[in-house]
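Q: My labmate handed me this sequence with no annotations at all. I'd like to see what the chain might look like in three dimensions before we decide whether it's worth expressing. Could you predict it?
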Amino acid sequence: QVQLVESGGGLVQPGGSLRLSCAASGSFFVINNMGWYRQAPGKQREFVAVISRGGSTTYGDSVKGRFTISRDNAKNTVYLQMNSLKPEDTAVYYCNSDTIWGQGTLVTVSS
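A: Here is what I predict for the chain of 111 residues:
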């Protein structure tokens, strides 16, 4: 069974940057798509980005040009580099692969 563990959340000022990490562990042969979603208070979970095992990426409209997803297949880890952060980026960020979800990491953008 695959487990996903996120890290890297925290408090950052508007315009700042953060990098999230998500490490997969457990028993698996290969992990294909890995992605990030987020959920702000009182809102539905929102798609942020996804990356295939081969490196193809797709982004949600609200983060295009500011966020970059990448992965290290040798480490079974996916990253989310978040630049030019805005208060509306405040949310719990979840790592996802297929039907598996991480526990989430909180990102707060505030001055």
